[in-house]
Amino acid sequence: MEHAKKDTGKSKKTADNIKDEIVIDMRNLRKSFGTKDVLKDVSLKLKRGENLVILGRSGQGKSVAIKCIVGMLIQDAGTLKVFGDEVADMDTTELKELRTKVGFLFQSGALYDSMSVRENLEFPLTRVLKIHDESELESRVKEVLEAVGLSDAIDKMPADLSGGMRKRVGLARTLIVKPEIMLYDEPTTGLDPITSREISELILQMQEKYKTSSIIITHDMECAEITADRLIVLNEGEFVAEGSYNELEKSDSEFVRSFFK
Amino acid sequence: MIETGEQVNFFTSFFKNIFTGGFEWSEFVRQCYEIGFRSFTLVGITSFIMGVVLTLQSRPTLVKFGASSMLPVMVCVSIVREIGPVITAIICAGKISSGIGAELGSMKVTEQIDAMDVSGANPMQYLVVTRILAATLMIPLLTLMGDVLGLFGGFLAVNLGDHTSWTLYFHKCVNSIGFTDLLPAFIKTIFFGFAVGFVGCYKGYNSNSGTASVGIAANSAVVSASLWIFFLDVVAVQITQLLFY
Question: Domains in chain A and their CATH numbers?
Answer without folding.
Answer: 2-9+50-66+96-258 (3.40.50.300)
